[in-house]
Amino acid sequence: MSQFQEQYRAKRVYEVTSANGRAEVRLNDRVVELGEKELDWYQKVVAWLPTVRGVADLSQDLGMSEARVPKFIETLEKSGLLYRRDAAPKSMTGLDFHAQFSSVLGSWLTEAFAHPFWERMMSGKGSARLFTGWLIELYHYTKNANRHMPLSCAYAHEKPIKQLRAKHYAEEWNHYHYFMKSLKALGFTEGQIADSVPLPMTLALSNFMRQAARTDILAYSICSAVLEGTTTDRKTYNPYYEKSGELYGIPKEAIAPIYAHLDLDIQYQHSDLFRDILEKVPEMSASRASLVLDHGHQLVEHIWLWTDNIEKYYEVDSNPMPRRPFDAFVD
Amino acid sequence: MSSTQDSLDLPLLKRSVTVARENGHVVIRHLRDEITLEGAAAQLFSKIEPQLDGKTPIAAIAEKVAEKPARLRVLAEQLEKTGVLAFLSAKDDGGLMTGLEFHRVHRQNCLYWLEAVYNHPLWEKIVTGKASRAQVIGFAFEKYHYIEAAFEHMGLAAANATPEMMPHLARHFIEEYTHGDIYRKGLRSLFPDELILHSQPLPSTRALVNYLSESATRSSFAYYSGNELLQLTENTDDEKDGGAVNEFYDAMRKHYPYTDKLIDSFIAHTKADQKLGHADAFLLMCKSVPPLTRREVNDALNVARNMAEHLLLFMDGIDTFYAHFATVPRLPCEPLSE
Question: How far is CA B169 from the centre of its chain?
Answer without folding.
Answer: 19
